[in-house]
Amino acid sequence: MSKIPSAPPVLPSTSSIEPERYELSEPLRYRFELERRDFVKLFGGGLLVLVAAPAALAQESGRGRGGQNQQPAELAAWLQIDGNGHVTGSTGKVEIGQNARTALAQQIADELRVPLASVSLVMGDTDRTPYDMGTFGSRTTPTMAPVMAKAAATAREMLIDQAGARWQADRASLAARDGRVFGPGGKSIAYGEITKGQALTGTIVADPPQQKRTDWQIRGTAAKKLDGRAFVTGAHEFPSDIKRPGMMYGHVIRPDGYGATLVTLDSAGATKIPGVTVVHDGDFAGVVAPTERDAKRATAAVRATWNVPAGQPSSRTIFTYLKENPEGEGGRGGRPTVTGDVAAARAQASRTFEASYLIPYIAHVPLEPRAAVAEWQDGKLTVWTGTQRPFGVRAELAEAFHLPEDKVRVIMPDMGSGYGGKHTGECAIEAARLAKAAGRPVKLVWTRAEEFAWAYFRPAGVIDVRSGVDAQGRIAFWEFDNWNSGTAGIQTPYEIANRRIAFHPAKTPLRQGSYRGLAATANHYAREMHMDEMARALGADAVEFRLRHLKDDRLRNVLTAVAEKAKWPKPSAAGRALGIAAGTEKGSYVATAAELSKTPSGFKVERIVIAFECGAIVNPDGLKNQVEGAVVQGLGGALFEAIEFADGRLQNGTMEQYRVPRFKDVPPIDVVLLDRRDLPSAGAGETPLVCVAPAIGSAARAFGKVEARLPVTLA
Questions:
Q1: What is the dihedral sign for C-alpha 74, 76, 79, 83?
Q2: What is the pLDDT of residues 595-654, one digit of tens each?
Q3: How many CB atoms lie within 10 A of CB 431?
Q4: 180-200 residue pLDDT tens
Q5: Is the pLDDT assigned to residue 5 strictly greater than 90?
Q6: Up-side HSE of residue 333: CA atoms within 13 Å toward CB?
Q7: What class is the 318-362+457-703 domain?
């Protein structure tokens, strides 16, 4: 056995959370420290890998560095029309199960005047699609859909112009429909005949003539999922299904605690297994084997000892830890936003309220754990992996292996969900590291235990709220302090003249980063539970109390719509209770009502009613699915989910120990969609989640005191 020099901890360092994005607390970093002679022996020359990723990987980032990381204006980069008239759109956005592929294809088909069946998309391939920051923040619909629509409208007008030039016909006499240009005298020509499969020339114009939203033909309809048959029949290959010629299988030797450093490594047992290669660099160690079974055997045969730092905080002490360990200049964090005179309003308030809400770390638990297949060929690295940021992962790989970015290709097959948890490229880097050592393509699929322990979590946090009302029952002042959870959704939508709202970055003992809805779930929970507490204390109706402080018509509309659908304030059966919450985030609006029944152990969610408005609806079926999926995920954080850890180790990192919603937990969900064709489309992937927990929490108060922490529990 050999002694390994200690190295800086793999986990965790930290960085701050900034408005509208979280900075990942610390990427998994690998100190590849082979002696030069061993390196040459293994690789025969080449570049030594020094670091796995940039020092700060933004939760919602992928920010370009200029040059190749700018979206092109050339039409050919976005659209191709082959000789048969089939249209292929290209986008760096990825399909994670949100049905973006169909919604974006609807944009193209509608503006290009072609049947939806004649449109397909290439998505998330860094060699074939234009640069994109990533798929996050409900930005695909408001940012990418207009690009695709403009590209299609530009192409349509160019095709009409070319047909007119061919016929020497008056431009006003031409029209496009069904993939053809029609002219005077019954003339027509198919798009494919015009392009002959050649690349479309020209640039996307700033304001091409487009359909009014009220005139949409394909957008606004419940189009069936593109490639849906491949998914339901099992024909689709997810990242974990990818196979390459000569491919081998890898596993990484994981630490047995957070912040651990490798002390000793004995790989003799593993190297006795035929075909096994052991890769060891500083604190990084892994195995490569001909079969997945052999890789697991080899991993089990490696004997490693780790030094886990003592004195780390636990899930019991984390909330005190966050408030006592601020991060930022002077430990002060971000500057608060202040409106009016809070101190004066507080002094004059007829009644005041104060509460502290505790938000635990929770895991993403994606359907498909992280997976990557890496292949080195002729000095170029290609990685197939599940990621929300293909171009961001390309940058990480390029930096890790000291390669120019044009020598790295990242391909994202449609993956089995992400929920904000697949922004970083650690799995891709690990697979590439093992593949370089083995000289063969390597597949690496994280186990469920690895996914729990070594992926990043939704940030924990503490949110303190102080408020007061005047003699007329109107909110006189509002103070809102968030430690560590984040800033998304932190501003109140209610009309309050005197308010102070502040976010305080804190040091975090666990890796944390993006989660569906970002911090909007935590901030909505604290705000809406506090609004509910105030209304109850004043003897006011919870809906009327909110409407009293709302001028935003869109938020008023969803709130009144959900109240009407839920038959507020009366539950559907005796002995039940209704709770309600409302909010806005990412340009969309939501209100949620929860109906609960009392049980010997607490309560049961009997029904969820949700009203949602995100402007003009592109695909009502897809939107309804998004909303329902968000509600189900929201049930997990509201009822069950919380990471437990102590002594630098995860305590509930299995599906048996970490409870996520099951079929029996999902109540009837009534979805009310408000279609606003008078407004641009906003995203829908995140906002429907944010009011599930406070709606449940407020309903549970009918059965007793509710703990001021998630998940919702009776005291």
A1: positive
A2: 999 999 999 999 999 999 999 999 999 999 999 999 999 999 999 999 999 999 999 999
A3: 30
A4: 999 999 999 999 999 999 999
A5: no
A6: 26
A7: alpha beta
The full DSSP string for 552-608 is -HHHHHHHHHHHHHTTTTS-SSTTEEEEEEEEEETTEEEEEEEEEEEETTEEEEEEE
Two tokens, residue 22:
């979280």
Q: Which residue type is seen at 197?
A: G
Residue 272: Cβ within 10 Å count: 10
Question: Which residues, other chains included, contact 555 with Cβ-Cβ below 8 Å and sequence gap of 6+?
Answer: 493, 582, 583, 584, 589, 591
CA distance 223 to 217: 11
- pLDDT tens for 441-499 read 999 999 999 999 999 999 999 999 999 999 999 999 999 999 999 999 999 999 999 99
Assign 201 to helix, strand or coil. coil
What tokens appear for 366 in the block?
Answer: 């994606």
Q: For residue 16, is pLDDT > 70?
A: no
Provide CATH code, domain 2-54+240-309+370-445: 3.30.365.10
Distance CA 401, CA 49 (A): 5
Give the pLDDT confidence score for residue 71 in this predicted structure. Answer: 83
Distance, CA of 188 to CA of 360 (rounded, Å): 63
Fold classification of 67-225 (topology level): Aldehyde Oxidoreductase; domain 4 (3.30.365)
- Residues forming CATH 3.30.365.10 domain(s) in the chain: 2-54+240-309+370-445, 67-225, 318-362+457-703
Amino acid at 396: E
